[in-house]
Amino acid sequence: MGTFEEFEQHLQDALIHLYDPAYRPPEMLWKVIGCDPQQGLEALQTVLVRAIEALKPAPHVPPTARSRRVYGLLSYRYVQDLTQEETAERLGITPRHLRREQPEAVHALALRLWEQSRQVLPAEEPVQARETQPAETQSLEYQSQVRQELASLRERAPGAVADVRETLGGAVKSGSALASKRGVGLTVECAPNLIAAIHPSVLRQVLIQAIGQLVQHMSSGQVALYAERADGNVKITISGHPAAADRLPDDNFIREALAAHSLPDTFLNG
Fold this sequence. Notes:
Layout: H1 4-16, H2 27-33, H3 41-53, H4 66-79, H5 84-91, H6 95-117, H7 135-156, E1 162-163, H8 164-181, E2 184-190, E3 195-196, H9 200-215, E4 221-230, E5 233-241, H10 252-260, E6 268-269
Parallel strand pairs: 2-4, 5-6
Antiparallel strand pairs: 1-3, 4-5
Helix pairs in contact: 1-6, 4-5, 4-6, 5-6, 7-10, 8-9, 9-10
């Protein structure tokens, strides 16, 4: 039937493409979740949505319990098809924290489905809940996740463009919680009628990540975001005053996102 690790990766792909009519699930996924491919994608969607709903904690479970966060993450992110930053805002955590939690939430769902399959399929070696992974492994998983989600966005909305002023406002709203905790204010200045050739969700996540990286190197002060038109292109500058670092720290997500849209790193200037 394949290994649990293979199934977990197939499940991650299926969740990302949960509402994609062009998605073609592998045979292993159908077998483990107990669906006949002849039933079609709607049957697969129903099983996965019900599996997520089955993780919903009882009303008496505290709001801070991990089980409630796992359920909320899976429900917001995949069933409701919210972006990472929208999901993080609903859960009251940072997008960076959400990206660390997301693989663990998928792992919890994969374990549940795998164990259910063993009740009707030949016995396999038991799968143990994995221990917290080292930062390097989490980073590699995250980079893979970023590639998948960026590809999914491009497929679902080819040629999408972002209203820069609106997207800046959304990023500042999401980043304000972390900034205020460190005593940092956020300001935005944007030239009128700026449109960027990038999916607005991707741009918003890039901006949130950039703000978070800069704020982490500050203990007070101000972060300013400035968008303008330069040589026929959109240029966004993010600066911190005073900042502990000379430039915005290097970040894999920002590089991945900009490269996926054929945009240079200088699209954002630190």
